[in-house]
Write a structure and sequence with these properties.
The complex is a heterodimer. By secondary structure, chain A is of the alpha/beta class. Chain A is built from 10 helices and 14 strands. The chains are: A alpha/beta, B mainly alpha. At the A-B interface, helix 2 and helix 3 of A face helix 1 and helix 4 of B. The structure holds adenosine-5'-diphosphate and magnesium ion.
Chain lengths: 299, 251
């Protein structure tokens, strides 16, 4: 059984194809990253998983429960932190969490609510009206709301957008701990270095299509290529190296290498052409780079 | 069941926290109507033989407040939740569309009854009121508030903006409640308007409710009962059908 199983899901809004046949399966216990530029369809996919939106075609299961036919079980299995900072201005933090808990059919859930508030540093704000909270605090309440019913699968839609660095780090260590306690985590984020550190597997969406789906380490290996940044005194790249050129700015060149062995060929080429190296930097690929290339490739 | 009860309590607490606007204000409005219309028309208008105009007016005002507030509660709660986006908190949990419907309608009926009792308590000092058939009065208050609360659910889900909802309120609900015999008996109207009034379901709610007080009405209460029950049944089916399809809520 998968934590989340998405099969051939399509979503059309009139003429717009927001999702064009997406399939993916997330194993229990994973931290899965869903990446993609704005408008790629991440929120739409999450909304379909959460039952907030209905797919035009295809099916979704959460812990084996179909999100339409067996929606009650599917929703009990799922905690969702929405992308927008939404809140109910009529109520306090504590009331908000108690109502949310009640909606999931839980009555005497006070101990767990206390614990969640404690972990998210909300205890001091327990009686504060939601309106009076800062953006970061509201975000924490959203996270707490997603956890009141102890769902095995937790989905966070850009939880760190517009959040300060400190809270972001606190949130990520909290996410890691939830994962350690056995929760499956799915998140979307714009901070690729964080996805790289946090996510075991990554799916990349572009214009409603899944253009990459692999473990983070495999994705990084696909572009094992290294980047060599050089400053050359004669500002002229030898012809035999032209095929490696990725970018040029004045006397600064960025070259692509497939592995470290190729470094020697490049150096030989430069020496034969009589070039002198003024600056030299060798960079391993990061997820940002991989992301940009995958997005370009599938243009 | 807990999900339904929680949503119901949350909806009750929501209007209770702003009771000044949701309860005190409509009671004051009704009281003003009584003072102005009662003062101006007392002695000029006599609807039924033995009933003074001010006394005639009170049940109409109570019922009008009940109906308007039943509609206002569900419709404004839903549109606020939709516009601020916090409706997701109710859409994410395993709450069925029936529970959703029941919680919004019942909470609105609670507000309608609180306001209705408030209006009654505030106006009863000015008039001599009998209660000839209290069961009819309660029945029509229950049915009427259920109809308007259901209509409020539909309007709140349908409207995307506050002005659309205000339009619905000003061009549908207000005319229907004002042209329903709150301030007059339809027998005092020209034939044409009498005939038109009979297509207004709110007319039957008010007429039937008034019967509960005076034991006289334009239409037999059993007939009004059938009309209102039919309205409620039709509207409930239509609303549940919309909710089941996820109309506008789960697009
Ligand atoms: N309710 C809607 N009606 C019409 N178009 C929508 C709606 N929701 C999303 N879209 C469109 O679907 C596409 C995907 O949006 P979204 O899933 O929010 O992307 P992401 O979360 O990846 O930024 C966008 O082009 C967006 O404009
Ligand atoms: Mg999004």
């Amino acid at each position: 059984m998968y934590a989340i199983e998405v099969r051939d899901v399509e979503k059309r809004y009139g003429a717009l194809q927001a999702l064009a046949g997406v399939s993916l399966a997330i194993e229990p216990g994973e931290i899965f990253g869903l990446l993609g530029p704005n408008g790629a369809g991440k929120t739409t996919l999450i909304s379909i998983v959460a039952g907030l939106t209905r797919a035009s075609a295809g099916s979704v299961k959460v812990m084996g429960a179909d999100v339409v036919d067996d929606y009650r079980r599917a929703r009990r299995m799922l905690g969702v932190v929405p992308q927008e900072l939404v809140f109910d201005p009529f109520f306090t933090v504590r009331e908000t969490l108690e109502f949310q808990s009640g909606y999931f059919g839980l009555r005497a859930n006070g101990d767990w609510i206390d614990e969640v508030m404690h972990h998210l540093d909300l205890t001091a704000k327990s009686g504060a009206n939601m309106r009076t909270l800062s953006g970061g605090m509201k975000r924490r309440v959203l996270v707490a709301q997603a956890l009141v019913h102890k769902p095995p699968v937790i989905v966070l839609d850009e939880p760190t957008a517009g959040v300060d660095v400190e809270l972001r780090q606190g949130l990520w260590s909290f996410v890691r701990r939830l994962n350690h306690d056995g929760h499956t985590i799915v998140l979307t984020t714009h901070y690729l270095e964080e996805a790289e550190l946090l996510c075991g597997r990554i799916g990349m969406l572009k214009a409603g299509r899944l253009v990459a789906l692999d473990s983070t380490s495999n994705l990084l290996k696909t572009f094992r290529g290294l980047q060599l940044k050089l400053r050359l005194d004669r500002e002229k790249l030898p012809a035999q190296l032209a095929s490696r050129l990725l970018a040029r700015e004045g006397d600064r060149f960025t070259l692509e290498l497939h592995d470290y062995a190729e470094l020697e060929q490049v150096l030989v080429g430069l020496r034969q052409a009589g070039e002198t190296i003024l600056e030299f930097e060798l960079q391993p690929p990061d997820l940002e780079e991989v992301f940009v290339r995958i997005m370009d490739r599938s243009a | 069941m807990t999900g339904f009860l929680t949503l119901f309590c949350k909806e009750v607490l929501r209007f209770w926290k702003v009771a000044f606007q949701t309860i005190a204000a409509p009671v004051l409005t009704a009281l003003l109507y009584l003072l102005i219309f009662g003062q101006a028309l007392e002695g000029h208008v006599r609807v039924y033989e033995s009933i003074r105009y001010t006394a005639f007016l009170v049940p109409g005002l109570v019922m009008m407040s009940v109906l308007q507030n039943a509609f206002a509660n569900s419709s404004s709660s839903l549109i606020q939740s939709k516009i601020t986006g916090n409706i997701v908190f109710i859409l994410l949990p395993p709450i069925s569309y029936l529970q959703f419907f029941g919680a919004y309608v019942l909470a609105s009926m609670v507000r309608a009854f609180v306001v209705g009792l408030g209006v009654l308590a505030a106006t009863v000092w000015f008039v001599d009121l009998s209660l000839a058939a209290p069961l009819w009065a309660i029945t029509f208050a229950l049915l009427g508030s259920a109809v308007l609360a259901t209509l409020g659910v539909v309007a709140g889900i349908w409207a995307d903006k506050f002005d659309q909802l205000a339009g619905f309120q000003n061009f549908v609900i207000m005319p229907l409640t004002f042209l329903s015999g709150v301030f007059y008996s339809i027998h005092s109207l020209p034939q044409v308007w009498q005939a038109i009034s009979r297509f207004n379901p709110i007319f039957y709610m008010i007429d039937g409710f008034r019967y509960g007080f005076f034991g006289v009405s334009d239409v037999a209460p059993a007939s009004s009962f059938i009309v209102v029950v039919a309205c409620l049944a039709g509207l409930t089916c239509a609303t549940l059908w919309l909710l089941r399809r996820g109309y506008k809520l789960r697009s």
